[in-house]
Amino acid sequence: MKKLFLLIIAVSILSGCTSLKTPEIRGVVVDAETKKPVEGAWISSTLSIKTKTIGGDVSSYLSVDPPHTRTDKEGKFVIPAKKFKAPPFPVGFGTKAESFGIGASTIDDKAGDISLIERGGRVGLDN
After folding, report:
1. Over its length of 127 residues, how does the chain's per-residue pLDDT go in tens digits?
2. Are 86 and 92 spatial neighbours (Cβ–Cβ below 8 Å)?
3. What CA–CA distance (Å, rounded) separates 26 from 106?
4. How far is residue 42's CA from residue 106's CA, in Å, rounded to a whole number?
5. What is the rounded CA–CA span in Å between residue 41 and residue 4?
6. Distance CA 45, CA 58 (A)
């Protein structure tokens, strides 16, 4: 499979007692071989959350990007800020973000992704 390279500008996920909020995310997709911007790549983004419940921890995967997000002629894309409500007590308490991923793919089977994961209270790239 051919590779794409994603450059993401600052991702910070804010956790609160009743909600999670992602910031506006701006990025660029370039071809890993030619180093040229990729026009028309499909962008997908997911947020993995864990909610503590009376019955045990529950993981959920939420779509962050709007449907049909694509790169422009310069390979750039924007994912607007989005807010998610946490489940109310007693269904859920203690919701936190575990990982955040952005992927890009093209019609000619090129793909690339980047993931941020939480480890011991710190967020870093998943290599």
Report:
1. 556 665 555 455 555 555 677 888 888 999 988 899 999 999 999 888 887 777 778 777 888 888 889 999 999 999 998 887 765 555 556 777 778 889 999 999 899 888 877 665 554 555 4
2. yes
3. 18
4. 6
5. 10
6. 20
Q: How many residues does the chain have?
A: 127
